[in-house]
Amino acid sequence: MKSNRALIFSLILIVLFASIYRVIPSRPFGFAPQLAIALFAGAVIKDRKWAFSLPIFSLFLSDLLYQLLFDKGQTDIWGFYEGQWQNYLLFAGLVAIGFFIKKINVVNVLAGSLAAPIVYFLTSNFLVWAGWQGTRGYNRPKTWDGLLMCYADGLPFFPWTVVSTVLFSALLFGGYYLVGQFSVKPALTR
What we know:
Elements: H1 2-22, H2 34-44, H3 48-71, H4 84-99, H5 106-131, H6 144-154, H7 158-182
Helix pairs in contact: 1-3, 2-3, 2-4, 2-7, 3-4, 4-5, 5-6, 5-7
C-alpha cells in the first residue's frame, strides 16, 4: 500500500511538472513531456482508465494555464480552441502505443519514443488541414498540395517533439526502473 501511495504521489508530481513546463515561454515549441507521459502511462499503468486519464489531465491542465495566461494578455497562445477535442482524442490514442511496450527495455522505449511523435505529427497536421477553418491551419487548400503545405508548417516543431519525447521517456522510464531497483525490499529471514 505504501508503494502505491508513493507511485500515485510521483504521478501527480509528474503531471504538475509537465503541465507547468509546457507553458514556459522560453522552451522551444514542440519540446514538452506530454507525449512521453502518454507513452509511459500506456506502458506502466495497468488500470487503463488511469493510463488514459494521466496524459489527458496533464494536457488539460497545461491548456488551462495557457488560457489563463492568454486571458491576462501574457501570451498569444490560446489554451482552448476550436477542434481541440481532436487533440485530446489523439493523445488518448498515443497511450495505445505504450500498450505495445510489453517489456520495458531501451530498444522498446526508444521505438515507442520515435513512433509517438511520428504518429502525432502525421495525424495532428492532417486533422488541422482537414478540419479547422479560420486562423488554424493557415487556411491551406483541401488539395494534396495544401496537405503538404500543412505538413511543412508543422516541420519546425517536429524535431523538438522527437527530442523531447526521447528525453522525457528516458527520464520517466529510467526513473521507473531505478525506483524498482532501489526500492526497499523486505529482509530475508534465516
